[in-house]
């Protein structure tokens, strides 16, 4: 049912003049009449008695008038709510991968408070695959996850960062001479088992082991339950980490940790996903997120993170 037909019906019932209603809705008198005829056809009732000089609402029209007014008001309320996220405030459910927590998330939360104070963030930290499932169930409004290489049918995907992966160790743990062989002989540390970074790290370490005459089954590879734990282990010198260097940017800058000159693992993309028909609050939040990621990348070395939004 066309809402404009209902609006024309209510105006005509109140004013009683086709010509005046036509002026108000910026249409011709003929168009007003056609709208009423269309509504009568949709409802299966006669709304007005017409003749050359008078226009009188029928009993059926009078009975339906209050219902039409209620539908119009409900529609306007819906439209106001959709347009006024920034005026009335809203809660936005945002899911992020743990990498964001240890890098740009604090700045993002601060920027949201400054730019969009009416939006209350409800944050979830989880694995990328779990975040996608929650968004598909409409439990999350926007997520930040690693790029999947798959274009989801239910979401808009925007690139944020390209994040290189590095071999990281405590200074002095791995000698320069025969560094690759010595590094592979250490405890290898990486992200949680079952994640993309874990699988990629294992595959690369096994390939390098075979290429260097080692038995891949002799490798000792541990998946850390959290990035905070991973950083703590590598800082204690308990192994060689295959990880995002940006997670330990201060330690690399100070010299506490070093990047080993070993074959470079493939980089990861960090992306944001949100519904294809987002609310204004979601699109505004995505814009703040892009701005924050761009600013973050300006502060760290391009060797650690590059903005690709």
Explain briefly what this protein structure is.
GO terms for molecular function: DNA-binding transcription factor activity; transcription cis-regulatory region binding. The chain is an alpha/beta fold. The protein has helices at 3-15, 18-24, 29-43, 59-83, 85-88, 98-101, 105-115, 128-136, 179-185, 196-211, 227-235, 249-254, 280-299; strands at 48-50, 55-57, 90-96, 119-125, 142-146, 155-163, 165-170, 187-190, 220-223, 240-244, 257-259, 268-275, 306-307.
Descriptive report:
The protein is α/β, with parallel strands linked by helices and 309 residues long. The protein has 3 domains: 1-80, Winged helix-like DNA-binding domain superfamily/Winged helix DNA-binding domain (Arc Repressor Mutant, subunit A); 88-161 and 266-305, Periplasmic binding protein-like II (D-Maltodextrin-Binding Protein, domain 2, 3-Layer(aba) Sandwich); 164-257, Periplasmic binding protein-like II (D-Maltodextrin-Binding Protein, domain 2), CATH 3.40.190. Helices cover 47% and strands 21% of the residues. The chain has helices at 3-15, 18-24, 29-43, 59-83, 85-88, 98-101, 105-115, 128-136, 179-185, 196-211, 227-235, 249-254, 280-299, and strands at residues 48-50, 55-57, 90-96, 119-125, 142-146, 155-163, 165-170, 187-190, 220-223, 240-244, 257-259, 268-275, 306-307. The strands form 3 sheets. A 6-stranded mixed β-sheet has the order 4-3-5-12-6-13, sandwiched between helices. Helix 1 crosses helix 3 (29-43). The longest helix is centred in the N-terminal third of the chain and has 25 residues, at 59-83. The radius of gyration is 31 Å and the shape is rod-shaped. The two termini are 41 Å apart. This is Transcriptional regulator, LysR family. Keywords: DNA-binding, Transcription, Transcription regulation.
């Amino acid at each position: 049912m066309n809402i404009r037909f209902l609006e024309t019906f209510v105006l005509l019932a109140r004013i009683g003049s086709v010509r005046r209603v036509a002026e108000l809705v910026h249409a011709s008198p003929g168009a007003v009449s056609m709208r009423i005829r269309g509504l009568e056809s949709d409802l299966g009732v006669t709304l007005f008695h017409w003749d050359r000089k008078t226009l009188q609402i029928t009993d059926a029209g009078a009975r339906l008038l209050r219902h039409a007014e209620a539908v119009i008001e409900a529609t306007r309320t819906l439209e106001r709510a959709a347009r006024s996220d920034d005026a009335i405030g809203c809660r936005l459910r945002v899911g992020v991968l743990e990498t964001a927590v240890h890098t740009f998330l604090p700045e993002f939360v601060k920027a949201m408070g400054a730019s969009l104070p009416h939006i209350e963030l409800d944050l979830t930290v989880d694995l990328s695959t779990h975040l996608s499932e929650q968004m598909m169930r409409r439990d999350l409004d926007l997520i930040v996850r690693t790029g999947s290489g798959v274009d989801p049918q239910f979401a808009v995907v925007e690139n944020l960062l390209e994040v290189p992966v590095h071999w990281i160790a405590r200074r002095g743990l791995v000698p320069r001479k025969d560094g690759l062989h010595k590094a592979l002989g250490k405890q290898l540390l990486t992200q949680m088992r079952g994640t993309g970074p874990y699988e990629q790290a294992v595959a690369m370490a096994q390939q390098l082991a075979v290429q260097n005459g080692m038995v891949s089954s002799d490798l000792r590879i541990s998946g850390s339950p959290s990035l905070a734990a991973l950083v703590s282990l590598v800082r204690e010198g308990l192994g060689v980490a295959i990880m995002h260097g940006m997670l330990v940017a201060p330690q690399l800058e100070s010299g506490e940790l070093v990047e080993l000159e070993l074959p470079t693992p493939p980089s990861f993309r960090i992306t944001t996903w949100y519904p294809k028909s987002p609310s204004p609050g979601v699109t505004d939040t995505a814009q703040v997120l892009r701005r924050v990621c761009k600013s973050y990348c300006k502060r760290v070395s391009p060797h650690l993170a590059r903005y690709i939004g």
